[in-house]
C-alpha cells in the first residue's frame, strides 16, 4: 500500500457528512400519523402498543379431536358416547356430560366441563361413540385465555420497525390502525437541457434522465416517501418555480446537476442567492456538492453524472435516512481486494465492486458516467484519501449497496 500527503484543498467526506446530518437530524421529530393495519408493514411505531384483550380470547382446542374429562380417559382403551360436535366459530355448547366426549375442531371453544382434548389420531370412530386409545391429563391441548398475552401487556415498543411478525400480533388483538412515525418526505429535482425522459427520441447531445428515477428509487428503498420527481431545464426561473413547489411538499429536497464550475450551473446560481454553500468535497466520484436551506427545508445538491449522484446519496444521505426510517445501518465489511487499485492522492475514492467467495473485484473503472457497469456492483470499495496504491490481496472496507 502506498500513501502520499493530500494536495487537494476540499472538505473531507467526514466533515461534509456531518454537515448533512446536522441539516437532516431535526427530521427525527417529524411527528406521527395513524395508518390502517394493512399499510403498516415497514413503518416505525410511534408509541408503545399494549394488548387490549387476552390472547387466546377464549378457551379453545389446540387440535382436531375430542374434548373429554381427563378422569374419563384415565384407563384406555375406553368407549365414550358422542355428545355433539363443536366447530371453530361456534358460539359455544352445552356442558359436556360426565363420561361422554364432544368432537372439537382446532380453535373451537372447549365445552364447559371438558378439561383436555384427545387428538383424533389417538381415537377410532364407533358409530355414535368414539374409542379413546390413549389417555390424556387435564390441560392437554387446551389453550387457556391469556396464555399468549394478557390484556394490558406490552406487544411492541415504540421505535419498532414493523415486520410481518409484528403485524400478525397486533392484528390478532383486533387493532384496526397503528400510530407510526410519519415518513420523511422527499422531493427530487434534476436539471439539464440535455436530459429527456425515457421513451423520448434522443437528438444530438441528448441523454435519458436516469437520475430522477434512480434517486427516487434509492429514497424509497431506504424508507423515504417520495412526494415528487421533477426536471428543470437550465433555466433559473423554471428551477425556482419547481423548487418552490418541492419545498412546499417535502421535508428535504434532493437536486442533481448544476453544482459544478460550468457556465450553466442553475442549481448553484439559484440556491447561492439563498445562502446555499457550494464547494468541493475530497471524494471521487461526487466532488462538487451543495448544502442549502430553502423556506426552512434542507436541500442537498449532488453532481449530475449518474454514478456521482448515486455514490453521493450512498455516502452522504443514506446512513442517516435509514436511521430515521428505523432501518438497520448500512452494512460494512473488511474483505480482500482481488485487483490492484490506484487512487488519486487526497481524495477518498469509492470504487464499485462485486463480492465473491474470495474477496471483492472491481466491477467498473472509476469514471462517474459508468452507470451501466454499476449495475453489476453490490458494494462500494472505500479507499482512504491518503492511499494512492493498493496491491491485490490488500484488505479494504466495503459498503453494501
Q: Can you describe what's shown?
A:
The chain is α+β, with helices and mostly antiparallel strands. It folds into four domains: 13-30 and 183-325, Molybdenum Cofactor Biosythetic Enzyme, Chain A (3-Layer(aba) Sandwich); 35-55 and 154-181, Molybdopterin biosynthesis moea protein, domain 2 (Alpha-Beta Complex), CATH 3.90.105.10; 60-143, Beta Complex (Molybdopterin biosynthesis moeA protein, domain 3), CATH 2.170.190.11; 332-400, Beta Barrel (Beta-clip). Helices cover 19% and strands 31% of the residues. The protein has seven helices and 29 strands. It has helices spanning 13-24, 164-172, 211-221, 236-249, 266-272, 306-324, 371-374, and strands at residues 2-3, 32-36, 49-50, 60-61, 65-68, 78-86, 101-104, 116-119, 123-126, 129-132, 142-143, 154-156, 177-181, 185-191, 195-196, 207-208, 225-232, 252-256, 277-280, 283-284, 288-294, 297-302, 332-336, 341-342, 348-355, 360-362, 379-383, 387-390, 395-400. The strands form eight sheets. It has a six-stranded mixed β-sheet with strand order 8-5-7-6-10-9, with no helix packed on it. Strands 17-14-18-22-21-19 form a six-stranded mixed β-sheet, sandwiched between helices. Strand 21 and strand 22 form a beta hairpin. Helix 1 (13-24) crosses helix 6 and helix 3 runs parallel beside helix 6. The chain is elongated and about 95 Å long. The two termini are 25 Å apart.
